[in-house]
């Protein structure tokens, strides 16, 4: 997805938007952290203790509804920043961030982070631009998904993941972010059982190949037809 106007693509991470000196100065404020796969980096509703700058590895951002349903809000990876809203507003965290694989990060205390932003207005503007790009992309995605069936939303999601997080192999485009069926379901507002049925349909049509936390897109043309409302 590309942000409209002259903005950067919403997938361009925070650290990649900074000048070299700004990036090094910010990273120097924090302490190194390492998280194991499936370990929580941040917990929803907890007070902010630090801002995390991700160096390696992918994470999922989720939020829980009152009925227990967990929605996947975003994926954040190398160069991204998480936990900044709670630090800037002094409010409890609004989402849960979990490592999908081993993650290395730098943790910066909220007071040091906000003081750095006050002393570096260009970095503050860069962070504001990132938030704007992400908000536009999220609004656009909600608008597109509102007019789609679950089947169409799921095909569109797989295409989006293949474009943003895929690596071409001899078998097709392999998704580099390990997501479970429940996590895929949370992205499109469906049940795990529905995602299982949709994956079976796509496997039968040779559109995808699946394994344990692995998914390869073999026929993007099939996914495009489904996402566009085709048979």
Automatic annotation (TrEMBL):
Protein name per UniProt: Crp/Fnr family transcriptional regulator
């Amino acid at each position: 997805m590309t942000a409209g106007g002259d903005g950067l693509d919403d997938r361009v991470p925070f650290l990649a938007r900074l000048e070299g000196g700004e990036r090094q100065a910010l990273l120097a404020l924090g302490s190194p952290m390492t998280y194991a796969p499936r370990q929580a980096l941040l917990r929803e509703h907890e007070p902010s203790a630090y801002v995390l700058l991700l160096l390696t590895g992918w994470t999922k951002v989720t939020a829980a509804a009152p009925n227990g349903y967990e929605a996947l809000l975003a994926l954040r990876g190398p160069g991204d920043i998480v936990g900044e809203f709670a630090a800037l507003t002094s409010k409890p965290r609004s989402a849960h961030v979990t490592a999908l694989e081993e993650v290395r990060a730098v943790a910066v205390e909220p007071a040091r982070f906000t003081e750095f932003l006050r002393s570096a207005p260009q970095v503050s503007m860069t962070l504001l631009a990132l938030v704007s790009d992400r908000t536009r992309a999220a609004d656009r995605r909600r608008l597109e998904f509102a007019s789609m069936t679950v089947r169409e939303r799921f095909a569109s999601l797989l295409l989006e993941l293949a474009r943003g997080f895929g690596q071409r192999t001899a078998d097709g485009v392999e998704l580099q972010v390990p997501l479970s069926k429940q996590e895929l379901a949370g992205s499109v507002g469906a049940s795990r059982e529905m995602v299982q049925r949709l994956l079976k349909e796509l496997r039968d049509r040779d559109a995808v190949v699946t394994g344990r936390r692995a998914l390869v897109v073999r026929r993007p043309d099939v996914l495009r037809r489904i996402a566009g409302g085709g048979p």
